[in-house]
């Protein structure tokens, strides 16, 4: 089994375990799931090591996207704590 296949298998096991555990706990906040998936992604990428150049490029693109989404979630939570405004309610149409 090559290293990329092993990485995909590891991430799929971690993501599935996250969904099962949080579902069993009755958690329904999407931002928690996305934050945990982002954390698991970066930890597994860091533990994996070097990639082939083309695979590394795709992993970087995915990483940048996940980091941007995670940053938006953190900013929303900070605004909620500081100002008492739940920002996601204001974005609904």
Summarize the structure.
Helix content is 83%, strand content 0%.
Question: Mind sketching the topology for me?
Answer:
Elements: H1 3-24, H2 30-48, H3 53-83, H4 87-91
Helix pairs in contact: 1-2, 2-3
Q: Give me the secondary-structure category.
A: mainly alpha
**Termini separation:** 48 Å
Q: How many structural domains can be distinguished in the coordinates?
A: 1
Mean pLDDT: 89
- Main sheet, how many strands, which sense, barrel? none
Elements, N to C (H/E): HHHH
Shape by Cα distribution: flat
The tally of strands reads 0
Strand content: under 5%
Rg for CA atoms:
16 Å
**Poorly predicted ranges:** none
The amount of helix comes to over 70%
Number of helices: 4
Description:
It is a single chain. The chain has 4 helices and no strands. The mean pLDDT is 89. The protein has one domain. With 93 residues, it is mostly helical. It starts with a helix and ends with a helix. Helix 2 runs antiparallel to helix 3.
Keywords:
93 residues, mainly alpha, 4 helices, 83% helix
């Amino acid at each position: 089994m090559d290293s990329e296949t092993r990485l995909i298998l590891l991430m799929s096991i971690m993501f599935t375990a996250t969904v099962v555990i949080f579902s069993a706990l009755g958690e329904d906040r999407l931002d928690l799931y996305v934050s945990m998936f982002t954390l698991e992604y970066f930890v597994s990428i860091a533990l994996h090591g070097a990639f082939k150049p083309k695979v590394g490029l795709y992993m970087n693109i995915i990483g940048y996207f996940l980091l941007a989404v995670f940053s938006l979630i953190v900013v929303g939570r900070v605004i909620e704590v500081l100002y008492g405004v739940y920002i996601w309610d204001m974005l609904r149409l």
